[in-house]
Amino acid sequence: MSEHPDILIIGGGVIGLSCAYYLAREGVRVTVVDRGDFGREASWAGAGILPPGNPARATDVVGRFLALGSSLHETLALDLRDRTGIENGYIRSGGVEVLRDEGYGFPEVRREGITCRLFDAEALHDIEPALAPTVRTGCYLPDMAQVRNPWHLKALIAACAGLGVRLCPSCPVDNWIMRGDKVDGVGTGEGDRHADEYLLASGAWTDGMLEPLGIRLDVRPVRGQIALLNTGAPLLRRIVLEGKRYIVPRQDGRVLVGSTEEDAGFDHRTTAKAIAELLQFAVRLVPALAGATVERTWAGLRPGSPDELPFLGRVPGWENVSVAAGHFRAGIQLSPITGMLMKELLLGQTLTVPLDRFGVTRMANRERERPV
Ligand SMILES: Cc1cc2nc3c(=O)[nH]c(=O)nc-3n(C[C@H](O)[C@H](O)[C@H](O)COP(=O)(O)OP(=O)(O)OC[C@H]3O[C@@H](n4cnc5c(N)ncnc54)[C@H](O)[C@@H]3O)c2cc1C
């Protein structure tokens, strides 16, 4: 008999795959099922921005969690490359946060031990000459990084396969098979599947999956639209952010412009209004982008949670069900620390970050009556 339980992960986005990766590295037998292809939902759609973080100087649990999310990426990128030969596009490109009011957001970043320099217009244009002259003040964050989401997912999938993870695409979980306070299996399009432990990593679809277990987390889809531009040759080197919008330059001359936050249910479509606003925003900050070609537009459904933090932990009332979902705008950033923590939780190891702050019961009165 195996020393570890075998685990079935429902959802093969960046969260489910990262959990599988960290578990499989410890010799756990893992199966991941996804309704469609792996990593084709929010995880593919995201921009891959990794805000800087300094775990040693974080002032609270959430800060440490966020900082570890970012800082683990560098090692992970190397590990994935060593295992698979696939580059995930991790680069510490740096970022410029455009400030409308001088000093906005600055004291907090400084307190968390993150390098952040307040630049005036001249200094900003020295490092990013394509920025509009109307950009007067910005916070330069040299340690902001990025990954190319599709490449990162490709590397994760290959690494999981190499570690013996069983990957089952086109395998939707339709129902739970329950016995007492345990789940005994799940019904899928390809028949029933059984495991010792079940981990739900089904992104924006998590509440629908939890309903039969009598739990509601209020994880909901938050649509984000993106326009992909191509300037032929790189125009910018650093990520440029203003409020919730951003311009992410890739090294090949492509530029992502994002994003919106919309309550549109499970509708993945883009809209003329949102894309027009994104393009206007991009050209206002970087006028030369007016000449770029629009290569593609898309939308993804972020798994939003009521307090914008993910739910990580055991599902109350069920002996062998856990959840890792609701990562909202930071699921790529937080995927390695989520994978590591869920591995620690499921294997009974010391937790790198305590999970109470992310627990399933943190929202008062969220638990509905258990079904009979
Ligand atoms: C436009 C946009 C920009 C973003 N930018 C960034 C960024 O710059 N940095 C950052 O850190 N994060 C960013 N994010 C957020 C990040 O992409 C998400 O938080 C993250 O991808 C969530 O991953 P996930 O695995 O939980 O969800 P998903 O990637 O959505 O994966 C969930 C999976 O579960 C599967 N599934 C659902 N139901 C079932 C079922 N019944 N049976 C089987 N499988 C099922 C789905 O098919 C899907 O593949 C962005 C998101 C968007 C949309």
Protein topology:
Layout: E1 7-10, H1 14-25, E2 30-33, H2 42-45, E3 49-50, H3 61-84, E4 95-99, H4 106-111, E5 117-120, H5 121-127, E6 137-141, E7 145-146, H6 149-162, E8 166-168, E9 173-179, E10 182-188, E11 191-193, E12 197-200, H7 206-210, E13 220-230, E14 239-242, E15 245-249, E16 254-258, H8 272-285, E17 293-304, E18 311-314, E19 321-325, H9 331-346
Parallel strand pairs: 1-2, 1-12, 2-8, 4-14, 12-19
Antiparallel strand pairs: 3-7, 4-6, 5-6, 9-10, 10-11, 13-16, 13-17, 14-15, 15-16, 18-19
Helix pairs in contact: 1-6, 1-9, 3-6, 3-9
The chain binds flavin-adenine dinucleotide (FAD).
Explain how this protein is built.
The two termini are 33 Å apart. It contains 9 helices and 19 strands. Strand 14 and strand 15 form a beta hairpin. The chain has helices spanning 14-25, 42-45, 61-84, 106-111, 121-127, 149-162, 206-210, 272-285, 331-346, and strands spanning 7-10, 30-33, 49-50, 95-99, 117-120, 137-141, 145-146, 166-168, 173-179, 182-188, 191-193, 197-200, 220-230, 239-242, 245-249, 254-258, 293-304, 311-314, 321-325. It is of the alpha/beta class and 372 residues long. The strands form 4 sheets. Strands 5-6-4-14-15-16-13-17 form an 8-stranded mixed beta sheet. A 6-stranded mixed beta sheet has the order 8-2-1-12-19-18, with helices on one face. Helix 1 (14-25) packs parallel to helix 6 (149-162) and helix 1 packs parallel to helix 9 (331-346). The radius of gyration is 21 Å and the shape is globular. The chain binds flavin-adenine dinucleotide. Flavin-adenine dinucleotide binds next to helix 1, helix 2, strand 13, strand 17 and helix 9.
